[in-house]
Amino acid sequence: MNPTPHDHPVPERSLAEINADIRCLFARADGRLSDAERIRHAALLGEWASAIRASVVPAA
Fold it and tell me: Quick one: which of 47, 59, 42, 60 has its CA closest to 9?
C-alpha cells in the first residue's frame, strides 16, 4: 500500500526551527543535560523525526 499525504501530518514547525531548539538546548546546558533537559531533548527528537517523515516525497 502506498503512503498517502494523510499518513504523515504536516509538522507545525520547520526542521530548521526544531534543529535550532536542539542546538540551543545543548548550548545552554554546556553539553550536559539534566533529567528535565533529556526529556525535552527526546521530545524535540521525536518532533524532528516526524518532520523528516513528513518531508519525504514518495517515489513515483
Answer: 47
